[in-house]
Amino acid sequence: MANLHGRFVWYELATTDMAAAKAFYAGVMGWVTRDVPAAGGAYTLFTTGGTPVSGLMALPEEAQQSGLRPSWLGYVGVDDVDAAAERIEALGGAVHVPPTEIPNISRFCVAVDPQQATFALLKWLDAGQERATELVTPGGVGWHELLAADWEKAWAFYRELLGWKKAEVDSSAMGTYQLFSAGGETIGGMFTKPPTAPLPFWLYYFKIADIDVAMKRVKAGGGAILCSPIEVPGDRWIVQCTDPQRAMFALVGKRSHSGVGYFAPDPSRNRSSPPIRGGS
After folding, report:
1. CA 146 from chain center: how many Å?
2. How many angstroms separate the Cα of 160 from the Cα of each of 84, 91, 124, 157?
3. E-assigned strands of 103-232?
4. Partners of 52 in the β-ladder
5. Paired sense of beta strands 175-182 and 165-172, if any
6. ∠ Cα 24 120 87 (to 5°)
């Protein structure tokens, strides 16, 4: 692709138990794992159909001591990582990992926005890696969602930094859900989180063939289901989960039955369900 600026290009799980995470996500998502050499320690690729869709690494000890817990991190492509890092700070965010180069692979930085939601920026150095994630890839991410302290202020930050455009908007008595696009494609949404939610954070929705089967696998693997499945446009359903190390993630896919019964949708949660546009 000619221009990846503003598009999500990679996802990475930092966890306290790599072996357990490998087994869990392989079981839930059907991913194949492939260990690869890395200068900073062990690194594993999660692949589907032979294509890498995300990575896995150990959460550094110093990060754990500072209070960080296992979590997924999304990398957004930019034309110039160093210039973007300076822009983050000028816009009120902070850079926690300064621009760093992985020889012949990428240059990246890790930052927080002004409301403390963590994200990363990346530029591939290997032309063969230059692709945005496809929202329709089975096993890949189908939606990107920001739970912000104030979505309008968050929007101003990301618009200036990444050039995102406003797409459709979903308004209800509970507030506004603002969709956004990059490169002409709607890729996510953001809203002001409820007071009971933790600090602002990005949530990634992985595409799965069958939500009901996946939920059983999540529980069998030691993970947890945080809410009943919620129906979204396109005859699809979403569910939010945590893995055994309590990293939060979400799933989007079809259902094997009508949803009547224990897993019926909870109307009180419909406000926060994204009108996902990332393919069928």
Report:
1. 9
2. 10, 8, 22, 5
3. 106-112, 118-124, 141-148, 165-172, 175-182, 185-192, 201-210, 224-225, 230-232
4. 47
5. antiparallel
6. 170
What average pLDDT does range 101-124 have in this prediction? 94
- 41 neighbors 3 (Cβ within 8 angstroms): no
Structure tokens at 192: 């002001």
Are 217 and 28 a contacting pair, CB within 8 Å? yes
150/127 Cα distance (integer angstroms) = 37
Give the whole-angstrom CA distance, residue 212 versus residue 241: 13
Q: Nearest CA to 141 among 50, 196, 75, 234?
A: 75
| Angstrom distance (rounded) from CA 154 to CA 271 | 19
139 and 48 Cβ atoms separated by less than 8 Å: yes
Q: Please, are residues 41 and 57 in contact by the beta-carbon 8 Å criterion?
A: yes
- Predicted confidence at residue 233, as pLDDT, reads 84
- Do the beta carbons of residue 105 and residue 99 sit within 8 Å? no
76-88, pLDDT tens digit by residue?
999 999 999 999 9
Tell me which amino acid residue 45 is.
L
Residue 238, token pair as written in the block: 């979403």
Q: What rounded mean pLDDT belongs to the chain?
A: 88
The residue whose two tokens read 């990346």 is: 122
- What are the distances in angstroms from CA 212 to CA 54, 143, 259? 23, 19, 9
- C-alpha 245, offset from chain centre: 17
Instruction: Name the strand (E) or helix (H) holding 75.
Output: strand 71-77
